[in-house]
Amino acid sequence: MISGLRQTLNEFGRHLRDPHHTRRPAGLPARPVALYRELLFNNVAESLDTCFPVCRNVLGTTRWQGLQRRFFRDWPSQTPWFREIPQEFLAFLAAQGAACRLPAWFTELAHYEWAELAVDVMDAPTPAYRVDGDLMHAPVVANPALLNLVYQWPVHRIGADFRPRRPEATHLVLYRDREEVVRFYQLTPASARLLALLEDGHTSGEAAILRLAEELAHPEPAQMLDFGGDQIRNFHDLGLLLGVA
User: Fold this and answer.
1) I need a labelling partner for 114 at 20 to 30 A (CA). Which of 83, 88, 184, 241 fits?
2) Per-position DSSP letters for 89-105, written without gaps between them
3) By CB neighbour count within 10 A (0-12 exposed, 13-18 middle, 19+ buried), where does 169 fall?
4) What's the pLDDT band for 223 if we cut at 50, 70, 90?
5) Does the CA dihedral 125-128-131-135 come out positive or negative?
6) Quick check: 133 and 243 in contact, CB under 8 A?
7) DSSP states of the chain
8) What's the pTM?
9) What are the phi and psi torsion angles at 66 (to 5°)?
10) 103-127: average pLDDT
C-alpha cells in the first residue's frame, strides 16, 4: 500500500510539473487536479513576477512565461518555502541558463533584482556603535544590511530602453538606509575594496586606506589618506557606515 501511494504521489508530482507530457494519475478527478495544478504554478509564478520585474519586462510576456514553466517543470527545488523560490530560480539560471538561450547578462540581472529583495528582508541586527567617533582612528562599524557586489554587466541600467552589448565591470553596493529603504550606490573598484576592508568591524579608516594603498602598490601611501578619508565620510553620510565601535 505504501509503495502504491508513493508511486501515485510521484506520478501526481510529475503531472503537476509537466501536464502536457505526463498523464494525470488514474482515479484522480480532472477538475480538482486542474485547479490545484494552476494554483501551484500561479503561486510560483507570482513569486518570480514580484522579485524579477525587470527580467520579466526585458524578456517579454511569452518568453518570461516560458522560462517560468521550464523552471517549474525541470528544477528540483530544495525548499518548500515560497519566499525562497527566487533564490532557487537563481540556481536554476546558473545551471540551465545557457540552454534557455537567454541574453548573456540575464543571470546577473536576476541576481541584482534578487539582491534587492535579500537586503530588504535581511535579518541584520544593528551592532552597538557611536555616531560621533573618529572614523579614521577607531574601528569602523558598517551597516549590517549591506551587499557589496561586482558584476560583469551594468545590471542597474538594464531595462526596456537599454540592453548592453558588451560587458562592463560594475561595482554596486545595495543596502538598507536609516529609514529602512533599500538603495544602491555605484562604486569604483578601489572604493568597493575600501568598503570591503571596513566591513569586518575591527578596522579603522586609516588602517583600511593604508592596506588598500599597499594592495595597489601606491608609491606614496600617505597621499591616499585624504582621498580615502573623503570616501569614508561619504560612506558614513550615505549610511553604508554607521559609526565607530
Assistant:
1) 241
2) HHHHHHHHTGGGT--TT
3) exposed
4) confident
5) negative
6) yes
7) -HHHHHHHHHHHHHHHH-TTTSPPPTTS-HHHHHHHHHHHHHHHHHHHHHH-HHHHHHH-HHHHHHHHHHHHHH---S---GGGHHHHHHHHHHHHTGGGT--TTHHHHHHHHHHHHHHHH---PPPP-BTTS-TTTSBEEE-SSEEEEEESS-GGG-BTTB--SS---EEEEEEE-TTS-EEEEEE-HHHHHHHHHHTTSS-BHHHHHHHHHHHTT-S-GGGHHHHHHHHHHHHHHHTSEEEE-
8) 0.88
9) -65, -40
10) 95
Dig out the grid coordinates for 32 from the structure: 480538482
Cα torsion 194, 199, 205, 207 to 10°: value is -80
In the block, cell 530588504 appears at 120
d(CA 125, CA 129): 12
Residues 99, 205: Cα–Cα separation, whole Å: 46
Do residues 93 and 69 lie in contact, with contact meaning Cβ atoms separated by under 8 Å?
no
Residue showing cell 490545484? 36
Specify whether the CB–CB gap between 172 and 129 falls below 8 A.
no
Neighbours of 34 (CB within 10 A): 12
Render pLDDT for 181-202 as a digit per residue (tens, 0 to 9).
999 999 999 999 999 999 999 9
Q: What are the chain's domains?
A: 1-102 (1.10.150), 125-245 (3.90.930.50)
CA distance 45 to 133: 48
Of 211, 233, 231, 236, the residue nearest 221 (C-alpha): 211
**Length of the chain, please?**
245
What is the CB neighbour count within 10 angstroms for residue 236? 18
